[in-house]
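Q&A FORM
Asked by: J.P.
Topic: structure of Transposase

PROVIDED:
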Amino acid sequence: MPDPHRLRALAENRYWSELEAREALDLADASGLELAEFARRHGFTLDRLKRWRRRLGCSTAKLVRVEVRQPTEPAGAESVLTVVLTNGIRVEVPSHVTREQLRVVLEIAGAC
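REPLIED BY: S.T.
REPLY: Here is the structure written out as C-alpha cells.
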C-alpha cells in the first residue's frame, strides 16, 4: 500500500522530474486501478499522467483473456487477426503480421 502522504505530495507537486513521473506512473500501475480512477482517487490530473506516460514511452499493455475461435472464412481467403483493446479500439491486421509489427500497431493504438 503506497504512502498516502507521498501520493498527496506527488499529486500537489506542480513540476515533476522524470524520476517523480516514473514513481507516480509506477504507483498507478501497481494500484490495479484504471488510470482515470487512480487519478480521481488520489488527486492527480488524468491528462498529466497520460502526458508523462507518452513522454516516457511507458507501456500501458495489460494481459487480458482472449478467446480463440475457428476461422469462419471460406478456404483460401486471407485470415485476419482482430484485437479489441481495453480502450475500445478495434485493430485488424493480416494474420501473417510479425510480432514486432503487431507490437508497434498495438502500442500506437493503445496511446490513443
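FOLLOW-UP: The chain has a mean pLDDT of 81.
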